[in-house]
Amino acid sequence: MSLTNQPDPEARRRVVAQDLENVMHPIVQHRALETSQIVVTGGQGSTIVDADGSTYLDAMAGLWCVNIGYGRTELAEIAAEQMQQIAYYPHTAMNLPAARLGEQINTLMGGDYHTYFVNSGSEANEAGFKVARQYAKHEFPGQFRFKTIARHYAYHGTTLATLAAGGMGERKTKFEPYAGEFIHVPAPTCYRCPLGLESGKCGMACAKLIEATIQAEGPQTVAEIIVEPIMSAVGVAVPPDEYLPMVERICRKYDVLLHVDEVINGFGRTGKMFAHQHYGISPDIMAIAKGIVSAYLPIAATVVKNKVFESFLGEVAEARQVMQVNTYGGHPVSAAVAVRNIEIMLEEKLPERAATMGAYLMEGFKDRLFRHGITGDIRGKGLLIGIELVTDRESKVQLDGALVQGVVDFCKANGVIVGRSGGGTRHSNTIVLSPPLVITRTECDMLIEVLDKALEATVAKMNGAA
Ligand code: PMP
Question: Which residue segment(s) compose the domain that 244 sits in?
Fold first, then answer.
């Protein structure tokens, strides 16, 4: 169904009944689905269409991923063409689209990297943990470097190891205990500094704690540090400019690999192709997914610096090669679509566009939303933005969860999909935004307008007027 197709309420009812009877959905409560579900049937640009004919401005780009926007039919043609040529063969061999995609990624990274293909962001991080451990086995034979330093409130995926690396209470506690090789340190969530320090006067204490943690654990036990450069799911935490360079210096000092999670941050989202490029750092391992193919098909990757890659070279009998295989890794159809997706991003200068539209949105939000006392903080980079809601700006007490959800619901009722930061953290009171990079100024204006109205309605509700 395209934007012009007719709504089909009867077909919609059938789908809802069929789904509720047979399907389990992630994160959302089944009961809630009975009343609040979207049955998505089409999309164009930044807009999605429900089977009932309603359209929504999708200010979340799906799950932070449809970077080039919906409805790019040329990608369907590329997928069909590739499927007719050769749909699949394992990536122990080679195929044209995956080779080209590897080359594109290496070029975007400045030419010193190799790429290992997987299917999701979780797998990309998981493979990253394993690469770091295997690298340590090769390079530090007398040591036992198996630990990953990670950060509180981080989100790195849904597998057991990526959950263990993560730090989102609600998401991880149901599956405890974990094996214990992930050591957590405070994150630069500066609006609510975990160390109680004042932003700009903290001497980067949280980065320094990483060094103290490595020393306490014993450097000979630490393989890597994982950081999402700009933390997304926690409510968009942009680190101070000095933070990541300091983390990198600590990594170099202790021969610890720097693993960046660019699953959301990557592919233009923050105004540069990769978010770490804002900070002049050079990761050893990088997980990418989502924007690599704008979610048109599943593909993701673990990108490793050549110094790491070279550690995996040797005679076959030495078993230095990557000791894992993903059946769908380097899938030719997904890779072909990803190649064209990246070309489109470059042709349409979408990272630059994200910087421009992000600045426009930011200005609009700051202009309009601070008039509501419940707007605590507005932060972000490019088209990755968080608006933290509080009972009042002075006390910074978090706005009640039901009221924050009310903002999300108000926006939806008014045709705009916005997100909410991850539950179970100290930051679940933040509205998060991650629209397609093709969002127009008119759509930005709509987003600002609807959020303004949503906050106004929330304040009125708090004052008992509604
Ligand atoms: N890392 C980050 C930063 C993410 O936000 C996500 C998913 N939102 C993942 C990893 C996991 O990606 P996937 O859902 O594709 O496994």
Answer: 74-347
